[in-house]
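User: I'm putting together a small comparison set for a docking exercise, and I want a reference complex before I start. The sequence is below, and the ligand is zinc ion. Could you produce the 3D structure with the ligand included, as structure tokens?
Assistant: Of course. I'll restate your input first, then give the structure tokens for the complex.
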Amino acid sequence: MQSAWIDRDADAAVARYENLGRDLALRVYTTRLLGQDPRLVLHGGGNTSVKTRLADLNGEDVDVLCVKGSGWDMGAIEPAGLPAVRLAPLLKLRAREILSDEEMVRLQRANLIEPAAPNPSVEALLHAFIPHKFIDHTHSTAVLALTDQPDGEALCREVFGARVGYVPYLMPGFGLAKAAAEVFDADPSVEGLILVKHGIFSFGTEARQSYERMIALVTLAEQRLAKNRKPPSSAQNRRPARRGQRTSRRSFAAPAACRTTRSTAPGSALCSTSAATMR
Ligand SMILES: [Zn+2]
């Protein structure tokens, strides 16, 4: 994959949303870049965030998490699709042992700066608990084709090494947010996280850094898949495997969860389906 970042377009976004500030303007710009590439975002999956300061309804500046709201298409997002939630109350939630989806939504809504804003993403707490300023999340087809294999985590470790942390599969929500934050805290130098059988997160101090880390990591996955699609060697051509004979070549066909739309199986549609129940 190539980065689609263009300085002129980024500057135009900053000028267009001048009254909202550079952070939010660039968050809108790179969210659209991700959302317009079907290799990264399909069927409304994925989300992004930025931590910044905004004036509340009393005109007082507060630390907020602007995170994708339910019902918005990343490819055409506007600032209203990134509702601002007070960050401090979200961070307090990490001390809890359990938190139901309903209570999580209620707490998030209670801390919105704009009361009429859409519900924050079901993954908003994960965005809050990771301290980076910009966070990008996709259900990249290439990453899912690796992580949805039976030995997906081991395979991802081969491909991404220590550049990312690895989070075991959990349904999106409070439990996943806490698990992801613990993996991050164990090695804060990582560029992102692989969520096993779910997708990928990347982080950065700048919008461009987080976006381009996503592109670089997904490119590693694509390169690994391309390597495994090479035609068999001439030796294999001379001695084709007998029927039923096991071969050492892995199959990297996209798993069923990636090919279906809005599947209930683990995979690319999970965040969007969970979020849909909270709209
Ligand atoms: Zn997700």
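The radius of gyration is 20 Å. The chain has one domain: 9-227.
User: Thanks, that's exactly what I needed.
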